[in-house]
Amino acid sequence: MVPHLTTALSGPLLELERRFLEASPQIEQWLRGQWQEYTPPFYSSVDLRNSGFKLAPVDTNLFPGGFNNLNPAFLPLCVQAAMSAIEKFCPEARRLLLIPENHTRNQFYLQNVAQIAAVLKQTGLEVRIGSLIPDLDGPTTVDLANGQKLLLEPLRRQGNRIGVDGFEPCAILLNNDLSAGIPELLRDLDEQYVLPPLHAGWAVRRKSNHFAAYDQVANDFAREIGIDPWRINPAFSVCRSINFHERQGEECLVANVSAVLDIVREKYREYGITETPYVVVKADAGTYGMGVMTVRDADELIALNRKQRNKMSVVKEGLEVSEVLIQEGVHSFETVHEAVAEPVVYMIDRYVVGGFYRVHTGRGKDENLNAPGMHFEPLAFETGCNLPDYRCGNPDSPPNRFYAYGVVARLACLAAAVELANTRLDP
Amino acid sequence: MVPHLTTALSGPLLELERRFLEASPQIEQWLRGQWQEYTPPFYSSVDLRNSGFKLAPVDTNLFPGGFNNLNPAFLPLCVQAAMSAIEKFCPEARRLLLIPENHTRNQFYLQNVAQIAAVLKQTGLEVRIGSLIPDLDGPTTVDLANGQKLLLEPLRRQGNRIGVDGFEPCAILLNNDLSAGIPELLRDLDEQYVLPPLHAGWAVRRKSNHFAAYDQVANDFAREIGIDPWRINPAFSVCRSINFHERQGEECLVANVSAVLDIVREKYREYGITETPYVVVKADAGTYGMGVMTVRDADELIALNRKQRNKMSVVKEGLEVSEVLIQEGVHSFETVHEAVAEPVVYMIDRYVVGGFYRVHTGRGKDENLNAPGMHFEPLAFETGCNLPDYRCGNPDSPPNRFYAYGVVARLACLAAAVELANTRLDP
């Protein structure tokens, strides 16, 4: 099933997609050149927003958690891409240890873990799941809603190597974003590859580094195919030393929100766009849509009530927010069953392997859909975002729209590669 | 639809398949190591024979001609694998020239060409089709039975570069096996990649070189997973300086056929197999199942009548046969709708991307199914031969049988890589 797509603005969007389709030999060649220079992360998922006049990534996840939501028909694509990634990172690997998040009660997340393990097994690896849960005292089988079972085993460290009982892996794949910090257990390992590297975790990673790398990627790409980089790149700014509780850094926030809104207003004027500009203020480190706020006017920041300040000050694992990203908001004009939707594209290595729509029935087109308590209704794309349909030539046909999604998602993946190359564990 | 499989002997076959499934981490690791050392051909297809007690390649085609017969669901796999191949051979390529065979009246073949072109276009390359047809004086559109059109353009050489009018490609993909010799047009090109290399064509290539390389691959692999290499490797021998018309080299043929039959008889005794051993005598260079003969006793070679001698003496493009391969025959115990069937597995780069059954309603289990005038009934595999089903653990389930096919096909692909590394254009 291809979800029904409605695009409010058809002109400029079609123009952008048509440009991607026409330029696809150039785009693919350019990307191949980039992949010679930068190593893509093992896997990633990218949240896109499509406003009709703009198609841009708003978040790039290096520990993707929704593989269970992909169309099952894409499994062979995932396996082939994973084979290519393993060949690059650790060709001699036979055994791989997967380290998931600790939340064992989230059935959706556990099905994602099972799906990742299934893909890796299909590449011919022996796969076991090592858990960071502190009080897991022995192998524990978890029943999944789909009838499968998942065996979680306590991680054991011996000298400078990590594993689970009777299993010494050559490679370790993290599906844990390290929001709680980098466990000592995982530091200074000896000849065991950790994928993605530890500094990809939120203990070290900053969204602002990612979007700075994306600036570079988007500018190079836009020059290459002759478009305004703003069409694929949300403006952003950063404030450090924020304390929402104590109202520290408010001036920085106000100034930067105003600055970003000014850039956006100017662009809207240039393109004759009548929508109301907005920015999204979010924690510079962290995930799960926590610590996120939509702002249409800088004044809103002065009048934050206690509840709003509390909401902004803490993200996953109780991490205190002191650095925030101020990102241009991109309206979502895509709707699925009359609810606002945003596409999420999944990649393994440099290959797009599928995607789905995140749908929120209770939110507006300028709101964050990855919100706590959201009604999450993933709809798998029928097409894999990697195959444009040249025969029909209509940019509004799903394969062609999805090709554009696949291109922008790969630009974000490339930005993550640049970001990881430019950052390290102990900066 | 998965074709219904019937396997007459279940014991040893299941044992072999079970061995492959159990050893899959080892197999995949070993293959990854081999691909670090050898570069797979751009694409290939492998004819397999499955006798229950033996699963072996009998022919490896480096200019595969049946992409149109694959399950359309495998298209994304083909595209991803082709992206990987292009990235390796010619990352900077934007334009690719496809050179097909000259037979423009074979609708099946032309659909194959269209399918290859479609896959390459989906990777983002500009693709044109350059024809070697000598009397093609301008661009010619051919209508295909499926409603598509194919534009054939005359090849033009300018200096040391080749192309078609207004199109200078960076890469040239041959789907022409060069049975007619290497055209001057294609020699000594300047900075244009020719894929596969010219010495992969039948003007230079010898099946005996391929199977000598396969001996090495099969022995290494068999040692790795602890099986008798004969279980996956047909015994063979070669006679050069044969002239069927003038009955030259008959003694060599008789001696070598006897020798191969002796090896097979000994093995049959060892495994308690009661089938009648046979060998297949075929041209050492050439394709399309021409110049092929089944022999159960060396005496049959002495009494060849004129018709049989004529049949053996010429292959495609009227090439005179003077070198023959004497290959152990592998019975086919697979039947589809009660007709004898042999699996054909397709690969792009080192990835299995699908396969189908070649079915012959009028032939026995020890006969060549790739025969002129055959009733060819390709049935696409529903599974891609790359995903074993570990959950069910039953080697007789189609995904697991197909995994075994995928493994043996990749061994043949590896042998082709070794063969191409060990041979060259002007030996």
From TrEMBL, chains A, B:
Q: Name one GO molecular function term.
A: ligase activity
Q: Which residues form a coiled coil?
A: none
| Keyword field contains Ligase | yes
Q: Which Pfam families match?
A: GshA (PF08886)
- Keyword entries, A-Z: Ligase
Q: What name does the UniProt record give this protein?
A: Glutamate--cysteine ligase
Q: Which organism is it from?
A: Azonexus fungiphilus
- Organism taxonomic ancestry: Bacteria, Pseudomonadati, Pseudomonadota, Betaproteobacteria, Rhodocyclales
